[in-house]
Amino acid sequence: MTHPHEEYMHMKELKKYNNMLGCIADAHYEIPTRCPYGGKIVDEISPGKKFPSDFNTHPGRKYFTCANFEDDGLHFRQPWVFAIQDEVKGLLKHVDEMAAEITELKDELKRVRTLQ
Fold first, then answer.
1. How many folded domains does the chain comprise?
2. What is the pTM of this model?
């Protein structure tokens, strides 16, 4: 039987790990600039399939990858396409907001000109 203090410390480590996984899952939007662990993000191109039956790693597929990447779920290796799609969605939202603002300003300018 383990000591209660050891169990408590183990529980705290697991809780910290689970909280970090949640933060990383939430951070997978748009183009990453840094890994949550502080690592630099590099552009990576997969050289080829690891196994003949491997359909997940297409040759030439682009990724945003943490420079210190380890396959433990705590570092980034985000497909380039998903990051660009998220970035474009965000930019389109900004364009729509700016178009609405321009329309409002045009209407206001017309009102001012009719008053003169």
1. 1
2. 0.53
